[in-house]
Amino acid sequence: MWKKSWPWVFLILVLSIFSFRSLLRPGYFPMHDDMQAMRVLQIDKCIKDGQIPCRWVPDMGYGYGYPQFIYYSPLPYYVMEIFHLGGLQIVDSVKAGIILGFILSGLTMYLFGRSLWGNLGGVVSAIFYVFAPYHASDIYTRGAMGEFWALVFLPLIFWAIYEFIQTEKQKYIVFLALSTGGLLITHNITSVAFFPMVGLWSLFLLIRYQKVWLWKRLLLSFLWGAGFAGFFLLPVIFEKRFVHVETMISGYFNYLAHFVSLKQLFFFSHWGYGSSELGSYDDLSFFIGTMQWVFSVIAIVIAFILRKKEKIFPIVVFLFLTGLAATFMTHQRSSFIWSKIAILSYFQFPWRFLTIITFTTSILSGYVVFNIKNKKTGVLLCTFMICLVLLLNGLYFRPREWYNIGDKEKFSGSLWEKELTISIYDYLPIYAKFPPDRQAPVKPTVTEGVADFPSYTKGSNWQKGEVIVSSEKAKIVLPLYYFPGFKVWVDGRAIKTIDYNNDLGLISFYLENGSHEVYTKLLRTPVRIIGDCLSLASILLLFFVIFRKKLSFLRQT
């Protein structure tokens, strides 16, 4: 079966080039969330400093650092870091990550589409998925890297569940666990939106194929996937109270200002690179795509016409209703649901459900060629649909501007100053009353007494240096936010209490007269330790399952 798929996989790879062809040149482009290169730089500093997993980033928060990757899903940045470690500049590593995201999303959708509709239907679903307008908007306008990469895992999760229930083969339990864990550490907001769908999909298939007894193994697979993501999942849940999150759901980010109209969803009016605003006059497109929604409607019409002949009819209906529900969630008529479910406020933008709509409309479009019995007719229809979607949507896949810059320019001068302060309110520790208005000093400051710092060094999540106190005692303030887990040692002995009762919530303490060696580092809290252990145990279990499978195969041969 796989041998027959290679030509179609190759076709998807070739056609996917049109989604990222504008990136195949030196330079970089601006986007709304222009922190992608900065986040890779911070991951790089963590990796080279031995801070694994990366939690505290040293340069952000205007140089005072903050716990970026305790709360911000890190997987895409680890992937981009691999490219950087392989020799690419960081800005080129970001582009490589985007290219890989487009390719993988097409391949995973083909995998799912092929399982449902065969090779032709799988190819149509894959190309419709890659070239959905929201896919272009996600990366070329918004720079929503996590949401963009989440599109890789949605088809993979649905495919693994479908194949497991159909075949009962244990390898799909492994695929499901890995893809579940992957989504959880790629974009937590998409995870919250998507996993209710996953639960319904699982329940629907278990009942549809009369295999309800498999629910326990599915549940164990989901728990295994959560275990893979434990290092991120536990801290983000149980340590949320340690940072300011109120700015993420108020003012501009209040979801009430960002519902979209049916006209914006279904009838193209404007393709812009601006922002989402109150009302229906946004300079940002929320277009589902003519081809995507039209062929989804055609698919459900065909399914109803053939409902007595087609065993797959209920699946088409399920996917269509899921897409319809996601569409409803983008409209202000759904505000009563948003007001009842508190966690939805962290979505910020109801139109983020376009991720789900993109997924369902793309997979449904592949069904249109499924019932074509004549092979030549099927190929012609497939070709027509693909050419049309490329023609209508292809031009969206390009940035508005292009700058001929590399890492040197990106991380220096005014651009570097901008990187230090963007999103400074995000994940600001609660001990800070307000964010800093100037860059952190290179060395600690002295607020009481007299002291000098002959040497001082900053790492990714640690700082150390020599302090000479010439007065009877001195109060030292480190250029570092306090956050649970930080510990300070003076001359090798831990300080029992750390003072952070100042406007910026910086670590401070008293030193007696004399020369001292000061060292501070962010350690693992109990929650982080448990999360790390869960991830490690899940990885070890994966190796055990793979090794046992290979050992069983060798015994049989």
From TrEMBL:
Bilayer-spanning residue ranges? 82-104, 116-136, 148-165, 172-198, 218-238, 250-272, 284-305, 312-329, 349-370, 377-397, 529-547
Keyword Transmembrane helix applies: yes
* Organism encoding this protein: Candidatus Shapirobacteria bacterium CG07_land_8_20_14_0_80_39_18
Name of the protein in its database record: Membrane protein 6-pyruvoyl-tetrahydropterin synthase-related domain-containing protein
Its keywords, alphabetically, are: Membrane, Transmembrane, Transmembrane helix
